[in-house]
Design brief:
α4 runs parallel beside α5 (about 165-195) and α12 (about 405-415) packs across α14. The chain contains 14 helices and 20 strands. The protein has helices at about 30-40, 45-50, 85-105, 125-140, 165-195, 200-210, 225-230, 235-240, 300-315, 360-370, 385-390, 405-415, 450-460, 495-510; strands spanning about 1-5, 15-20, 60-65, 75-80, 110, 155-160, 215-220, 245-255, 270-275, 275-280, 320-330, 340-345, 350, 375-380, 395-400, 420-425, 440, 465-470, 475-480, 490. With about 525 residues, the chain is of the alpha/beta class. Strands 7, 8, 9, 10, 11, 14, 15, 16 and 18 form a 9-stranded mixed β-sheet that branches. Strands 1-6-5-2-4-3 form a 6-stranded mixed β-sheet, covered by helices on one side. It has a 3-stranded mixed β-sheet with strand order 12-13-17. About 35% of the residues lie in helices and about 20% in strands.
């Protein structure tokens, strides 16, 4: 979808649809809406008076302008109550708007930036970014394997009206960030929607090689023999049951406005993503019900891949490394068995008591490899535990970490993107559940506190690096479509990671968006 910025006034802009937002229960209209209402002979106010349109969250009403405006239709979208307004209300409103616009067979729309006064903590950049994200994500479709041609036409153009000067510059930057962020999340959805017979570890490696053509991105792929020489026993143990060769993928982005010169000495931020391209559970086989969803067990790695790509396209002045240990988890004749002992890259030994707790095994080697970069921060993202879904449901990402400042920055990014995190305890007392009689630790700690013991297991492989673990097992898949969240793979966590990097880049420049 083409994203454009134009100077106002909004009532003079031709388009298939003009989108106006409104807060619940408020009789007064915003300036732009008031002008449009006068041109429509009070039709908008009549809808408010009759309570046919109340402005409740994501409520829509479509009006035909009958030639009274250059736009063919006006779409009213509710933002909910002003006192409860959050930036995500804008994202949801535009995700909802896009669905309604497409239902009407329209392909272009125009909209002003929602009233900034209601969103006291949001800049024009933030608001416009949310508009773009909502519109692009709300229109997402995955059609690679469909042959019936019944899908709705994609939107062609979104035009945001902004005054000249500083406001227009801010709106332009917001659209730039919004496009990069939405494209990253949609890329993750695409990767995870492909079936596991297509999206193999080798295909992930191919995607990484494509990414190496982006600005200042390099890729290194460790093959099985390389991993064996390094001693990645945990990663290779998981891979043993599969005929698909494992790939340990390292991406490195060095960003700087003038050719990445100053970024070379900077300690990197390292992102590590669980990349199980299909998880059967191994010898500890999963139930058949819903096993098809395990094609998305690579979501963490896909999000790291997409985040590096977006950072490159935004030319963020950061040094970022991405690590993707990619393999399948299959019950083949050479597969690891309950009771086997694996020696990790760090030298610590692990007794495997459940082969379906494989994500923490590949991450153990991925996280330990990350410490070689002497990073300023390590963030891992993984569909790690079913216990996360039990504890948090589908609207919160589980967060653990060893550094309060890093956790706080991740939390702020989550609030801004609507991809919220909830901190869980990382107390050493829980390690009693992971103690083994025959090895340094075992890979499960029983049902009680399963999300916590999994995170505590990972903590043993990061050394003293500032580290945060994000368990996205509760958010990576949706059973229903929401305003800008697709049914199936959601990509949730991608925009959180990118927003964290954007915030870090702004801090490194010593500036803030207006």
């Amino acid at each position: 979808m083409d994203l454009r910025v134009k100077p106002g006034p909004v009532e003079q802009e031709p388009a298939d649809v003009l989108v106006l937002t409104h807060f619940e229960g408020e009789p007064a209209l915003d300036d732009e809406a008031a002008v449009v209402d006068r041109r429509l002979n009070g039709a908008v106010r009549d809808l408010l008076k009759s309570r046919e349109f109340q402005g409740t969250a994501n409520q829509t009403v479509l009006l035909h302008t009958q030639g009274k405006l250059p736009a063919k239709r006006v779409l009213l979208v509710g933002l909910g109550k002003r006192k409860e307004a959050k930036l995500d209300a804008v994202r949801q409103a535009f995700g909802t708007a896009v669905k309604r616009i497409r239902q009407a067979g329209a392909t272009t729309f125009v909209a002003p930036v929602p009233g900034r006064a209601a969103f006291v903590d949001a800049s024009k950049v933030d608001l416009t970014q949310a508009m773009a994200e909502g519109a692009m994500l709300g229109g997402y479709q995955f059609t690679a394997y469909r042959t019936n041609g019944d899908d709705l036409k994609p939107l062609q153009r979104m035009t945001v009206i902004a005054p000249d000067g500083d406001a227009r510059t801010s709106v332009t930057e917001g659209l730039r960030r919004g496009r990069a962020s939405a494209e990253a999340a949609m890329y993750v959805r695409d990767l995870c929607n492909h079936p596991a017979n297509v999206m193999t570890p080798s295909r992930i490696a191919l995607e990484a090689k494509k990414l190496a053509k982006e600005h200042h991105v390099r890729v290194k792929i460790l093959e099985q023999r390389d991993a064996e020489k390094l001693g990645m026993g945990a990663f290779l143990g998981v891979a043993r049951g599969s005929h698909e060769p494992p790939k340990f993928i390292i991406l490195e982005y060095r960003g700087q406005e003038a050719g990445a010169r100053n970024g070379r000495g900077a300690r990197p931020i390292v992102l590590v993503g669980k990349t199980i391209t299909f998880d059967t559970g191994g010898i500890s086989l999963k139930p058949a019900e819903n096993m098809e969803q395990m094609k998305a067990d690579m979501t963490g790695g896909a999000e790291v891949l997409a985040t590096i790509r977006a950072a490159s396209r935004l030319r963020l002045p950061l040094h970022v490394v991405g690590i993707l240990p990619a393999t399948e988890n299959m019950p083949g004749g050479r597969a690891i068995k309950p009771g086997d002992i694996l020696t990790t890259l760090s030298g610590l030994t692990v007794e495997v008591q459940n082969t379906d707790a494989e994500g923490r095994l590949i991450l153990a080697d991925g996280l330990n490899y990350a410490t070689r970069f002497k990073p300023s921060a390590v963030i891992d993202v993984a569909t790690l535990t079913g216990a996360c879904m039990v504890a948090l449901g589908q609207f919160a990402i589980g967060m653990f970490g060893n550094h309060d400042g890093l956790k706080a920055r991740i939390q702020r990014a989550g609030l801004k993107t609507g991809e919220r995190v909830w901190e869980m305890p990382l107390w050493e007392e829980y390690f009693e559940q992971l103690k083994s009689d025959v090895a340094d630790m075992r890979n499960i700690g029983g049902r009680a506190g399963g999300m916590i013991t999994a995170a505590l297991f990972l903590s043993k492989f990061v050394g003293d690096c500032p580290w945060v673990h994000l368990d996205i097992a509760s958010t990576d898949w949706s059973e229903r479509e929401r305003p800008y969240v697709s049914k199936g793979p959601t990509g949730i966590g991608t925009r959180l990671l990118l927003q964290y990097l954007i915030d870090e880049s702004l801090e490194s420049r010593g500036s803030r968006a207006r």
